[in-house]
Design brief:
310 residues; mainly alpha; Ammonium transporter fold; Ammonium/urea_transptr; transmembrane helix; transmembrane
């Protein structure tokens, strides 16, 4: 039973990449990355396991129960597999990076809980992954590209772009991994799945309207942060708001990711999920600031929901 519980905790950690607390969703995501190559799935699971064990040792069992201290490690594992050519060093760096995510997560939690920005209730989300992986695979190790993403043209290219937006979240590639992740999202919750699709389709439409072309849009590189921000704002952090407000927030968040993605790409660090993080934090800060202003002026604004994301 203890072994099954441990496996479930690790899989929940993998599922939390997409804000889901579901063992079966985690298993489908592992299957999706394993479709690209089995050892990539091993790196993702090992990363989630290492962060979970590190958090359990430092913070206790309750901190890892829902997988909240596993998803950044899983992403570090995916980044290690994408950045390194050989399984052994990649798995080694997955463990090192995942363990480093534990104290980084704690420091960011304290920062976001401080009086300076605590009023905005900003979630840590994937920031530990971005910071740790950015150091490990750009500053410490030479970044080795994982190859050109799969692309397509015409109607098949459009469909591929919608699915690649999901697979690229975990640094995977291809229609089958993307489809498996979409299924995982709907297993985790209808709302999660629908807002994930909304983010992917809005980003795809935006890329096509901006003249990027089907081939470029089909890579999914312009859509993976859009998927995350749409889920976060539409299905997680603002659940007490009306549907129209959540859809509006999701669409605005997607637009921001598409503006930030090319801007961040010129910096000498990996982009990873920074467009998602910065877009989500910016919108949450703005909404929280407006709420505070109305409250100070004697208004009765709607209470801002706090994300169940550490």
């Amino acid at each position: 039973m203890e072994v099954l519980r441990a496996v479930g905790t690790v899989l929940r950690g993998v599922s939390q990449i997409f804000f889901i607390d579901n063992v079966w969703s985690g298993a489908l995501i592992v299957l999706a990355v394993g479709w690209v190559h089995p050892w990539i799935a091993v790196a993702v699971v090992l990363g989630a396991l290492a962060q979970t064990l590190g958090a359990w040792a430092l913070l206790g069992r309750e901190s890892v129960r829902t997988g909240m201290m596993g998803y950044n490690g899983a992403l570090v594992g995916a980044a290690a597999a994408a950045a390194l050519n050989h399984p052994v060093p990649a798995l080694l760096m997955a463990v090192v990076g995942a363990l480093a995510c534990v104290p980084v997560h704690g420091m960011l939690q304290r920062l976001f809980g401080s009086r300076t920005v605590g009023w905005a209730a900003l979630p840590v989300a994937t920031a530990p992954f971005c910071l740790v992986a950015g150091v490990l695979f750009d500053l410490v190790l030479p970044l080795v590209g994982s190859g050109t993403p799969t692309t397509g043209s015409g109607v098949p290219g459009v469909a591929l772009g919608a699915l690649n937006s999901f697979s690229e979240v975990v640094l995977a590639d291809g229609a089958v991994p993307g489809a498996l992740i979409v299924i995982a999202l709907f297993v985790g919750g209808i709302r999660i799945g629908l807002f994930g699709l909304l983010g992917s389709l809005v980003a795809l439409a935006g890329a096509l309207l901006a003249g990027d072309g089907v081939v470029q849009a089909s890579s999914g590189l312009l859509g993976y942060s859009a998927v995350l921000v749409s889920i976060a704002l539409g299905a997680v952090v603002w659940n007490d708001r009306p549907l129209w407000a959540r859809i509006t927030g999701a669409v605005v968040g997607v637009a921001l990711t598409m503006v930030l993605q090319p801007l961040l790409a010129v910096l000498p660090v990996p982009v990873y999920t920074w467009p998602f993080l910065l877009s989500m934090w910016l919108l949450m800060l703005v909404v929280a600031a407006v709420t505070r202003t109305r409250r100070a002026a004697g208004g009765t604004p709607r209470r801002t929901a706090v994300a169940p994301i550490p």
